[in-house]
């Protein structure tokens, strides 16, 4: 079984989503299906079909989350240190063209959320900066042509 690196916080978020789906969403959709069934002819009952679709989505997500959680390899980032970019590091990058500065934390693929600054370890940017140090300039392939970033800070914890 393939293991997925993950932070403890990322695992906790996935476990909370799973708990929410099992204890809140599942029972609610079962009630909605029962209610829709009580309205009679199911072949033309849009409410019933929508509830069944939602149930299918929920069950699929529950199975996906259970599989991810079972394969999670939690890495305690509080024990990590150093000056090279690695899993769990918070890295500040400056775009060489625009001088725009952004800070990301390198996390597992299943917990990535770019809006929250959580960058997947398998993303092109993360792959380009892994193993690099403060002051290094990296080139990242992008749809509009390669972009260059300078690493201005690497921190753990």
Automatic annotation (TrEMBL):
Any single biological process term in GO: regulation of DNA-templated transcription elongation
Domain Transcription elongation factor GreA/GreB N-terminal intervals: 5-74
Positions of the Transcription elongation factor GreA/GreB C-terminal domain: 83-154
TM annotation in the entry: none
InterPro entries cross-referenced by the UniProt entry: TF_GreA/GreB_CS, Tscrpt_elong_fac_GreA, Tscrpt_elong_fac_GreA/B, Tscrpt_elong_fac_GreA/B_C, Tscrpt_elong_fac_GreA/B_fam, Tscrpt_elong_fac_GreA/B_N
Keyword Transcription assigned: yes
Entry keywords, A to Z: DNA-binding, Elongation factor, Protein biosynthesis, Transcription, Transcription regulation
GO molecular function, one term: translation elongation factor activity
Pfam families: GreA_GreB, GreA_GreB_N
Family per similarity comment: Belongs to the GreA/GreB family.
Role of this protein: Necessary for efficient RNA polymerase transcription elongation past template-encoded arresting sites. The arresting sites in DNA have the property of trapping a certain fraction of elongating RNA polymerases that pass through, resulting in locked ternary complexes. Cleavage of the nascent transcript by cleavage factors such as GreA or GreB allows the resumption of elongation from the new 3'terminus. GreA releases sequences of 2 to 3 nucleotides.
Name of the protein in its database record: Transcription elongation factor GreA
Organism ancestry: Bacteria, Pseudomonadati, Pseudomonadota, Alphaproteobacteria, Acetobacterales
Gene: greA
């Amino acid at each position: 079984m393939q293991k997925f690196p993950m932070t403890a916080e990322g695992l906790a978020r996935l476990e909370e989503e799973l708990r929410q789906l099992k204890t809140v969403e599942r029972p609610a959709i079962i009630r909605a299906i029962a209610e829709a069934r009580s309205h009679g002819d199911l072949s033309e009952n849009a409410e019933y079909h929508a509830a069944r679709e939602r149930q299918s989505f929920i069950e699929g997500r529950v199975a996906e989350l259970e599989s991810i959680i079972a394969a999670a390899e939690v890495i305690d980032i509080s024990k990590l240190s150093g000056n090279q970019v690695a899993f769990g590091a918070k890295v500040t990058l400056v775009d060489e063209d625009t001088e725009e500065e952004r800070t990301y934390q390198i996390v597992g693929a299943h917990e990535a959320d770019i809006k929250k600054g959580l960058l997947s370890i398998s993303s092109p940017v993360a792959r380009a900066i892994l193993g690099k140090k403060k002051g290094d300039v990296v080139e990242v392939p992008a749809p509009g042509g390669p972009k260059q970033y300078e690493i201005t800070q690497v921190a753990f914890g």
